[in-house]
Design brief:
Elements (H helix, E strand, L loop, with lengths): L30 E5 L7 H10 L1 E7 L5 H18 L4 E5 L5 E4 L6 E3 L4 E5 L10 E3 L5 H4 L5 E6 L9 E10 L2 E6 L3 E3 L3 E6 L11 H11 L6 E4 L5 H12 L8 E6 L2 H5 L1 H7 L2 E4 L1 H7 L5 H15 L3 E4 L13 H13 L3 E4 L1 H4 L4 H17 L3 H12 L5 H15 L4 E6 L3 H8 L6 E5 L2 E4 L4 E4 L1 H6 L6 E5 L10 H17 L8 E8 L2 E8 L3
Parallel strand pairs: 1-2, 1-17, 2-3, 3-13, 6-7, 13-14, 14-15, 15-16, 16-17, 18-19, 18-23, 19-22
Antiparallel strand pairs: 4-12, 5-11, 6-10, 8-9, 8-12, 9-10, 20-21, 23-24
């Protein structure tokens, strides 16, 4: 896997670019989050998505009720069993999202230079003259000249189903707007985005709390994607809410940065959250187009240095209706990988797209190619410099393991962990080979029954670049004498051999705890 690593700075024969890539067990180090919906909820399609490389399934509660999503999740569980591919579950909240409700679902035509009124009166029927919205405070938040965007839910940007409006005047609770482009709004739900304006809606709404307790708790969700995170306090409040819900105290919170407000408080949000989702659809509306790339590069760099997973959205919109991405999109996916993103999130492309499996497969192939030219050497030096000295004990072990693996051209790094932290630290240094994270379950008791921890930790590494989890037998503790560790190591090596990642005479770097000491060792395999 590491041997076909090349750097763009080195002279490459142009013809060699066209040579087909070798197939490998892990399609790419970069992970893919797929949104499951109408086009991707059958067992067959989900199985196809898992085989193509999806490792996290996102359930978007902006539409669909708990029963609908439960049916999809049950199908996902069936697909996981039949494909033997691990997959984590992410619940995406609605958050402070303004929506236009079109009960009749009839198409609405809007003509350029005409006017349309946005009203909080939900009793009104949506038409070319009036659009009812789910928020009473819009009139207080906007002023003449402000920009408002309305688009089909999960619009791809290429459709003629989105419209730009300019506020003409505010009349009581109603907002009268001038239409800037001709468009036809189709569907039952449109999202409304007021550019660079503070919207006084809670980040975690009552509806979100209902969904989390009714659906999230029984399904022990791995990730909560907190839509419209604007302040670090939003993350703290969400964590406080989850901590009261038993098992969900282990759920990781990913802050979704969707507007200027979230961008302004990015550093504080990053400190509080377990990971970040760059919601480029909404950000693209809030930011001037020439600033979008700059935000992406800066945000990804900050996440990488903090060792927290960063997820980029909205990459291959055109694949919602087409079998191939555009040239710009293919380049965009590669750049997201080179900029340092851990995972690519697919929304409309898998939710209502015609080619969910092909989209995941295509994105995975582009990621794998980009990873070959990722400048690991430069990245490693930058990370070590950023961490500074003296390094913490764990940080020193993690960076040493990666350096050793690269020097001896190891085919894989095996890390024993019970919390998952050590494995995530190794992955932070972006080794060129996969990191097998062997999660050793811990026995817990609440005085009524015994239970094992570990499943959460294993699934939560499915969103981290280069990290591939396996759950060990709980009879082998992570911190123990070398004899029991040897047997776990044998299981991990056998798994590596069976999956084709490890071959005879390969070198493997192992990172483990023996007693109180952390040990990095290099082993060479015999025939």
């Amino acid at each position: 896997m590491h041997s076909n690593h090349l750097l763009l700075e080195e002279p490459i024969r142009m013809a060699s670019i066209l040579e087909p890539s070798k197939a490998s067990f892990f399609p790419a180090m970069t992970k893919i989050v797929g949104t499951l919906g109408p086009r991707s909820r059958s067992v067959d399609v989900i199985s196809g998505c898992l085989k193509a490389g999806m490792s996290v399934a996102r359930f978007d509660f902006s539409w669909g009720d708990c029963a609908y999503h439960q049916e999809t999740l049950d199908n996902l569980k069936t697909a996981i069993k039949s494909t033997k591919k691990l997959c984590a579950v992410m619940l995406d909240t609605v958050g402070a999202e303004m929506q236009v409700v079109n009960k009749s679902e009839k198409s609405i035509s809007l003509q350029q230079d005409g006017n349309v009124i946005l009203t909080p009166d939900k009793g009104q029927e949506a038409s070319s003259q009036v659009l009812p919205i789910n928020f009473n405070g819009l009139a207080k938040a906007v002023k003449k000249g402000d920009t408002i965007f309305i688009g089909q839910y999960l619009f791809t940007g290429s459709e003629t189903t989105s419209v730009w409006l300019e506020v003409d005047k505010v009349d009581g609770d109603d907002v009268d707007c001038k239409i800037k482009n001709t468009a036809t709004l189709a569907g039952a739900l449109f999202t409304l985005h007021a550019s660079q304006i503070h919207i006084d809606l809670p980040t975690l709404t009552e509806k979100d709390k209902e969904n989390i307790s009714a659906w999230g708790v029984p399904n022990k969700i791995d990730f909560l994607s907190l839509s419209y995170t604007r302040h670090a306090q939003d993350v703290r409040e969400a964590r406080e809410y989850l901590s009261k819900l038993g098992d969900l105290s282990q759920t990781q919170i990913f802050a979704k940065i969707e507007n200027i407000e979230g961008l302004t408080h990015f550093d504080e949000i990053l400190q509080e959250a377990d990971g970040i989702i760059l919601s480029r659809g909404n950000l693209g509306i809030d930011l001037p187009p020439e600033k979008v790339f700059l935000f992406q590069k800066t945000a990804l760099y900050k996440c990488n240095m903090a060792g927290k997973p960063a997820v980029v959205t909205r990459v291959v919109d055109s694949m919602t209706d087409n079998l191939r991405p555009t040239r710009a999109e293919a380049t965009d996916v590669a750049n997201a990988v080179l900029d340092g993103s851990d995972a690519i999130l697919l929304g409309a492309e898998t939710l209502r797209g015609l080619y969910p499996v092909e989209t995941i497969s295509t994105v995975g192939k582009i990621c794998a190619e980009a990873e070959k030219v990722f400048n690991q050497d430069l990245y490693f030096k930058k990370t070590v410099k950023y961490v500074g000295e003296p390094m913490t004990h764990l940080e020193a072990i993690a960076s040493s393991a990666v350096r050793a693996a690269i020097k001896v051209k190891a085919s894989v790094i095996i890390c024993f962990t019970s919390s998952g932290r050590a494995a995530r630290l190794i992955a932070k240094y972006r080794p060129t080979m996969p990191v097998l994270s062997v999660v050793i379950p811990r026995l817990k008791s609440n005085q009524l029954k015994w239970s094992f921890s570990g499943a959460f930790e294993a699934r939560q590494s499915l969103i981290v670049r280069g990290l591939f989890p396996m759950l060990a037998d709980p009879r082998h503790p992570a911190e123990s004498n070398s004899a029991t560790n040897e047997s776990v190591l044998k299981v991990a090596l056998d798994f590596g051999k069976a999956s084709g990642v490890i071959k005879s005479h390969d070198r493997v770097v192992v990172c483990q705890k023996v007693g109180d000491a952390s040990v990095v060792k290099i082993i060479e395999l015999e025939d």
